[in-house]
Amino acid sequence: MILSPKVVLFDMDGVLYDSMPNHAIAWQRAMQKFGIRMSALDAYQTEGMRGVDTIRIMVKEQQGRVISETEAQEMYDEKTREFGLLPVAPIMDGVVSLMQKMKRDGLQIGIVTGSGQRPLIERVLTDFRHFVNRRHIVTAYDVKCGKPAPDPYLMGLQKAGNFRPNEGIVVENAPLGVRAGVAAGIFTVAVNTGPLSQSALKKEGANLVFDSMPAWCDAWDDFYFSIKKQTDC
């Protein structure tokens, strides 16, 4: 596959925002109210999956019940409420500079998140208004099968302009998100912004792994030059 990128599809939590510590706290507090045990590590390992899917899996595993999506959504609404009580997560260091370089090089920016928290989506449209619009955002409500299925990233390509997999780049921080990008056949870059090991991202098939967003930003020019050189040959 010859990479000929036209759009970069960013995950949101842990990529655009340093928000995963808040999510871990909110998940633990909310699920405790429903008798569900959830650790901070669980939150990181299931990151990227639709919240209602995470809840249905944990209820089945811990309580032996199969719950409807409606009941799971009610539980997820409590997690959203808890998240809203926490301090606002900062924009991830380096991500705006990276987007500026991508836009300079003529690439579109899209967002593909497993989140269904509408206030967060509205914040994205404000914080990243120079790079992304509502039409190019995929949320939990846009797909039936969330990450690690390829559907969210395939939808991201479609929303961006019906692009082919070799015309996209995925930027992820979570194993399930990396798996989704790889399953979609898209060149996938993992940025390890959390407590998981580098190997947890590499084993899911990430094409490149960086230990921070600034490191990925610093590598962009050489990376893009090498792609253009290959395409032009």
UniProtKB/TrEMBL annotation:
The molecular function GO annotations come to: sugar-phosphatase activity
Please tell me whether the keyword Aminoacyl-tRNA synthetase is annotated for this protein: no
- Say which domain of life the source belongs to: Bacteria
Alphabetized, the UniProt keywords read: Hydrolase
Q: Which InterPro entries match?
A: HAD-like_sf (IPR036412), HAD-like_SPP (IPR051806), HAD_sf (IPR023214), PGP-like_dom2 (IPR023198)
Protein name stated in the entry: HAD hydrolase, family IA, variant 3
